[in-house]
Amino acid sequence: MERVAEPHRCFWCNDTQIYRDYHDTEWGLPVFDDTHLFEKICLEGFQSGLSWLTILRKRENFRLAFNRFDIASVARFTQKDIERLMADAGIVRHRGKIEAVINNARCAEKLLESESSLAAYFWRFEPKPNTRPETFVADTLKTLTQSKESTVLSKDLKARGWKFVGPTTMYAFMQAIGLVND
């Protein structure tokens, strides 16, 4: 019987099956769909200060609570929706983060007035290959939490009114959507 080789995985994903599945099927793969990009940036904001495992375990609840991260739908959320979300034990009940998702949906709509897509906007921040480390070891990756590009992206989004998009969060977002290959 032929043995199937395990895929090479990053140091952070071997603890649980949910991490392994996320790593093997999603993390670091290029994303170009605006709804998926909006979901990713929102979930990265929710993850701030928490474990990514917490977010992954609640991801389907987030999708249900935020209408599958449909930008136009979320942009129309009201105070009543905020109160509904604050009572939803299936998600992270952090008022600032919930309000940020709604705010960011409105900001995304405004951005889409001048950009062809969120993908076109975000992929503009892809670093040049020669600016990236040539090799990655666990110790390097544990300390690599920001980049020049994640800082520029963060500043640009903040100037456009986005919330919970600091440089570390944007670096994690860039990794998740394949903008940087760590």
Q: Keywords for this structure?
A:
globular; 10 helices; 182 residues; mainly alpha
H/E order of the elements?
HHHHHHHHHH
Structural class of the helices, strands and pairings? Answer: mainly alpha
Compute the separation of the termini in Å: 34 Å
Shape: globular
Question: Largest sheet, described in full?
Answer: none
Q: Assess the beta-strand content as a share of residues.
A: under 5%
Query: Would you report the number of β strands?
Result: 0
- Give unreliable regions as ranges: none
Radius of gyration: 17 Å
Mean of all residue-level pLDDT scores: 89
Number of helices: 10
Helix content: 55-70%
Model description:
There is one protein chain. With 182 residues, this protein is mainly alpha-helical. The longest helix has 20 residues, at 95-114. Helix 2 crosses helix 3 (52-65), helix 2 packs antiparallel against helix 6 (95-114) and helix 2 packs across helix 10 (167-176). It starts with 16 loop residues before the first helix and ends in a 6-residue tail after the last helix. It is globular. It is built from 10 helices and no strands. 31% of the residues are buried. It has helices at 17-25, 34-47, 52-65, 71-75, 79-86, 95-114, 118-122, 138-143, 148-159, 167-176.
Topology, element by element:
Layout: H1 17-25, H2 34-47, H3 52-65, H4 71-75, H5 79-86, H6 95-114, H7 118-122, H8 138-143, H9 148-159, H10 167-176
Helix pairs in contact: 2-3, 2-6, 2-10, 9-10
